[in-house]
Amino acid sequence: MFEFTLDARAGRARTGIFHTPHGGLATPVFAPVGTQAAVKTLTPAQVREIGATLVLANTYHLYLRPGDELVREMGGLHEFMQWLGPLLTDSGGFQVFSLSGTRKIDDDGVTFKSHVDGSTHRFTPEKSIAIQENLGADIIMAFDECSDPNDHAYSKIAMERTHRWAERCLAARTRDDQALFGILQGGVDPDLRIASAEFIASLPFPGLAIGGLSVGETKKEMHDMLDVVMPLLPEDKPRYLMGVGTPEDLIEGVRRGVDIFDCVLPTRLARHNAAFSPEGRLNLMNAAYARDKRPIDETCDCYTCRTFTRAYLRHLIVAKELLAGTLLSIHNLRALIRLMETMRGYIVEGIFEEKAPMLLKLWKNNAKRMDNG
Amino acid sequence: MFEFTLDARAGRARTGIFHTPHGGLATPVFAPVGTQAAVKTLTPAQVREIGATLVLANTYHLYLRPGDELVREMGGLHEFMQWLGPLLTDSGGFQVFSLSGTRKIDDDGVTFKSHVDGSTHRFTPEKSIAIQENLGADIIMAFDECSDPNDHAYSKIAMERTHRWAERCLAARTRDDQALFGILQGGVDPDLRIASAEFIASLPFPGLAIGGLSVGETKKEMHDMLDVVMPLLPEDKPRYLMGVGTPEDLIEGVRRGVDIFDCVLPTRLARHNAAFSPEGRLNLMNAAYARDKRPIDETCDCYTCRTFTRAYLRHLIVAKELLAGTLLSIHNLRALIRLMETMRGYIVEGIFEEKAPMLLKLWKNNAKRMDNG
User: What is the ipTM of this complex?
Assistant: First the structure.
């Protein structure tokens, strides 16, 4: 269980299979986010048709609603949401630390108020593991503290706490059918990142995650941190870059040896009427598309692009038909998953290093982050 | 084209095939409503998987948004919305007459204000046909005036206007690949209904519709009016009971010889968290379903019932996930379409009259109208 078989390499990039109780996961892989046990607006059948193989769900949200004990009673998260492939849950840490002003951190854990009803709750490393064991995902995450990339002193404190919490998570776990991944922190400080990579890599985690990136630092800082930590991580364990990202981020991450990604970007863009395309991100609300008979992307093989014109999608958006969100989510997710499939193919064929600049150029116009575009 | 082949009869009930340019339509049939060129929250692939064969779209809405000329430029409504089976458009009359206070009726037509932007528009019989020809559905409807069932004097005026408009619609049409259906009116007055049935049946329409029912009259009044008019309609033309209905209405309609139905009820109920089930209408928001591992209906063959528990559906509703609306729409539409399939089977097997009371009993708890339940 949780063996990671590497099939091919190209520079630091690699492709392989991570074996889980719900099937082998071909890497590098992009995971759609199903925050509340549902990839927004899509049925599991549609998520599968898109080519998704791994889905992420959020511990914080499911703990609050419907409750992790209820999910366990219902047979666990796979059974509850009927996603029968590999599942990953985060630790709840990131969401809780994002509740600025309403959470209080100490060395033992975090006390916070629910965004649903204002009630007070407490997460500790042990509690996070207990919740994730109730949920029952294949890959679960250590409880970590994500710091502000611009605050060096806090980054150091958060990193040290993350290390102690990592050991407590390992001690707390009781299920051997879940792969508990350790998370490195360290902000944008190379020395902290090196210390964190070395410490977390020394613990018996079957996989390792890079946390605290894509949280406000520059692209260059993200790439620099990956350049610093990736060579320090063991080759035989999968590496997960959390909360990333844009098409460009995926290419730059794979190049540096990342195996797993997740991001809400494709579904969030869909809710804002935006679609990935070779021309750049399209805002399909735009009147320019009112009579446009082309699909979003003539090269895309998704249901939306095989079936509908931009004119129809624009009509749905203007008429406030929810189907627009479904159809754009299908396209945006497929675009990133297809990009991952393309990169896996290039690595296997031994042409990834040669093709990566072309991929980066192709996706340049889509590299803007959500907050900029 | 537009031949109606009758295959079997059981009392007044009958089953047949209505031949359209987009395929043969097995009757009796229930049509999901795709008001704005989309069955709410569902892809055409999902609508097809549900077993739907005919879809209705609304002329009033599509005239305003995206505009019938745009739809024509995009290749017509089938191509635009990618529903490649038979399509039906209403005349726009019902919506326009429902805009009480903002519309003005005269013998030539109706002037009204758009609900979208308040702009002033005018529909006449000729205009309605021109719009419907631009949209290009297989079945189009004559422009009629629906009256208040409790206002006899107005019912007579509206009926007479409907008759004159029916002749103008026949004169105005130019496409022979669309079946123009005539509509009878007459409120809840048997004499008016008889006069209307005789007049409309005397005109060269390939199909006939019963308008002005399910608009506030009692169930008994609806059944009485059907009992009065159905024997007066030619056997060799399909009969369409507009805007109906509940499961009970469908059974009572088929019993009296109705061939085509449409109603927004299944998708509207879905948006209100309600689902058809043998136990009655379930409100899936109810806390009683929080740990209910059963599907909505154990006898149902829809994707939702084959896949998800009531507990999961309730979670999606409570967590405000739009997927809930999609999954309940799939179930509610499938429930009515399966009921029609069952009735077609019973008619073919010659056991419909014997089985109808059992069907009525089974669906009794689901017979409540939306406004009551």
Answer: 0.96
